[in-house]
Amino acid sequence: MACMQVNLAESPYDFELDRVIDWVRQNNFKKVLLQSAPGLIRYLPEIGCYIKQMTSADTVVDGRGRFGACDVYTNLTGFEAVVHFGHTGFINTSYPILYIPAFSKIDATKLFHKILDALSNMEKVGLSASVQHVNTLPTLYEYLARNGKKPFMGQPGKRCLYPGQVVGCDYLSAIRIDSKVDCHLIIAGGEFHAIGLALSVFKPVLHVEPYAGSVEWVSKSKVDRVNRIRGFAALTLQSAKKVALVDISLPGQHTSSLIEKLEVFLKRVKPTSQVNSFTTELLNDQFLLGLKELGYEVVVTAGCTRFATDDFDRSPIPIFEAREVYGLYLKGLNVDKGVFILQ
User: Fold this and answer.
1) Residue 116, Cβ density class (10 Å: 0-12 exposed, 13-18 middle, ≥19 buried)
2) CATH number of 6-98: 3.40.710.10, 3.30.390.30, 3.40.50.11840, 1.20.272.10?
3) Cα separation of 60 and 49, whole Å?
4) Scanning 42, 118, 207, 281, which has its CA 20 to 30 A from the CA of 329?
5) Between vectors from CA 207 to CA 201 and to CA 210, what angle results, nearest 5°?
């Protein structure tokens, strides 16, 4: 069988194929599902072909990019195991699953001089990274220490594995050291994790983007935009006559107990409003449009904490983060700074 449509050796990620092959062989798996973060899907057919050549196991590519380790199947049908690239696991599943972080092979040390220049007025620096780039943090830590800085790395939250690691819903490693540092530095592709970090801490955030080769401070305007989105959704919730509470059925996002408590709470604080609970696997456009057509004015979701801000532009109705409902009604809304953030 011919593979090699994508040269894995030249890809910017370490897929740890030797470890994958050993795991499949040792467990004698015959049919394996391959999952990954959206940006890695293009490599999966080639990886599957290689696994077939080396083990004789059949592989199938999951065509929907997975946005985190929370985004996995509750039950696995038709396969013996899953290899999941691009995340670290934090939930127990009823089937075998091997998580491969897909560490970046990009030489981020080329940006260290830019980092040092950007930190000229900062001494104590908190270090964070998305999982692809946590392998760079120890080297950066030593570099900054040699050049007169005092670097810090926090211990990971329950949804992360490595010191300094952050994911979209867990910035605890940075929050734990926020009071000790003058600023935070995060190595991550794109703005997703950098803006999430800036929303989670009180100190400035320096974003190192290894793919673009840029080193820039996260601007206040970007943070303010997210807070305006959250403020608008909060105002809508306060005035809405019809509210949809949505639980996400994915095993890493499922929080039916919170939805049940919020339904009781909202019916008490909004006695003239209609509050109904829903469940869905994906909070997609079709589902949201259906709610709007039914007359719902706002969605309160207990799923991914980033739905409320990252999906604002495409959502036909405002989305509000369920974990902030109590803060909104108990402490009110500061329109200038956005919704009170529950830590």
Assistant:
1) middle
2) 3.40.50.11840
3) 10
4) 281
5) 145
